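I am still learning, so can you show me any protein sequence you like together with the matching structure tokens, please?
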Amino acid sequence: MHIEPDSVQTPSYNPWEDFRLKRGFDTRNNVHPSFIEIAQKIVRMDAEATPHMERAKKCVHGLLKNMLKLRTASVENGITYPTDRLSIVWDSAGDLPALKLIATMARQMGAEVHVIYYRSIDLDDASIAMHYLDDLRTLGIRVDFFDYLNQPKMNDQQSPEEKQELQEKHRARLKQAYALFASHRPTIIVSNLSDAYDLRADLDHILGVSSSESDPDLFDYGLSCSGLEIPTADISALASEMFSEDREKMGRLGTELIEEMEKYPYIRFVADDGTDLLIKPSPVSWVNEANNRFDLRAQDYEVDLSLWESSPLLADNPPGEICTNVRDSEGTFVLYQLDTDVIEWAIRNKDVYGFQLDAIPKHQLVCDLQDPIRLVVKRGHVQVDAIDESSLRARMLKAYLKQKVIEDANAAQLGENRLPNAALKIAELGLGINRLANNPEVDLGGGLHILSVLITEKMREIFHLAIGKSINDDPGFENKSGSHIDNGLRNPGLRVYGVNQDGSSTLLHTSQTDISEDQQGTLNAIFRKHM
């Protein structure tokens, strides 16, 4: 037994003794409408006609009222007070009706509005995006574009000279992106980068939030502003509890869920597709984001909340999950949806690795219910060499993970606080606590949202496992990697058990809906109580 129990006494039951990896798995012949047809239908919808629009308007008005000074340029006692200048950063995985709502309402409230539209993974017809952006231009809102997808990235197969050249190109493109912000000199930034963690990390770099990477020689424009980071903010999300004023209610829900999860030293995930994974969560690092409100990012960067007006990007994404570090894990689990960091990396490096991506729609790279990827986990780490390369998506994930291990090892040699193989560690367990509006047009296969990968980790009753770096601090917990990819557990027939030291277990959650409520698990009962 390699996972040591927290108690001094060694239990007579070995949690791993009867635990066996299942060989093979079957893929249900689930029939779903075309992903791309649904995506196009969503973005073509007249946002004003959606049943969630009035609640979304109220939400956006409240957010903007709290952020904007609602003033025009004036001079008082010799001091010039400018009007609010709002820069909105969006990417092509984001929801365009939500962008239009925020931009137009901010303008109506007196702010100067500037939109920076990042091209990332193109899930939507470009003409649809241009339709919405042209509407904004017609209203006199400035719209700039930045091609993030073609940003140069290094890989280990390049020579030192090639890497140096790419570093210079990357530096130049970051400066170009920064100049887009600086030209507007915003007082507030709203970020809806729903796509990739790499992209969001670059925004932190651009704004100088990430102090370890900020470069005063590069960024000399003197940008200073507040910010709100709201990935996955589509119309239905804006109308949901995710952004409701009753944060205390969400806080109580999260606290009760954590109290139930903390009862068990082990959590086991079992599904009809062969998933059978046993994990040992950390008993000391549970985080309830609903209690953090909007100051989680401020805690990350040790920013004084009293300096709200002069500190960049203080607000993190709205509270939507409970999460903790994973101390150890063993078994197997099946993925259907890839983190977009993996896909964007593959797009940039397709010629290096020979990935034939052009024949496959981007949305199918993100999620394919007929192309499961089976991951074997031993002693807490994904066994990357065991990934079957029979499909393109599996080859992409395998190459990505191998590259991240190399990057971590190289960083460790340079004295950075990295650990070889940390990119392969199952590092974080999360459970979404938001109840998104019941909208079948954005709910595929039980919760796979076509327009955003990040949304899966915020959706109520959705578990996710992160590979790589965990966000939570836990003394003595080794999870130092430069990579973090999320994996939503949307497996058919998923069942989650709390496992005791003596081997007994309790059903916490099931995705089955054709059984009585008292058979759906203790976590489901807590969710129902707070609905």
Notes: The chain has two domains: 37-236, 247-291+316-530. DSSP finds 15 helices and 18 strands in the chain.
